[in-house]
Amino acid sequence: VQLQASGGGLVQAGGSLRLSCAASKRTSSNNAMGWFRQAPGKEREFVAAISWNGGSTIYADSVKGRFTINRDRTRNTVNLQMNSLKPEDTAIYYCAHARSSGVVSRANGYAYWGQGTQVTVSS
User: If we measure between CA atoms, which residue out of 5, 28, 27, 2 comes closest to residue 91?
Assistant: First the structure.
């Protein structure tokens, strides 16, 4: 399983970014997918997750109402639309492939991780 995250960059507070994660062709699309982030000096934290068929999503309280996760199973991609960005959203964002089909927020619920993409929000 290989996961390739992209779409990070530098944006001003209040702006938007869209992250994408492409899974290799052999990656099962019957598993949930998620996004995590890690800011400098902090532990990795959960951001959002989506079930295998997109029917269920969960979000960290800190991003609810601002971030939206979706997936395209035919293309084996998962996206994270981030609006109203804040400086505290600055982090490296990682996509991950879950061990199961249902949404999960614990990091140990994910078996495979992408390399991460940097998001920097300036004030």
Answer: 5
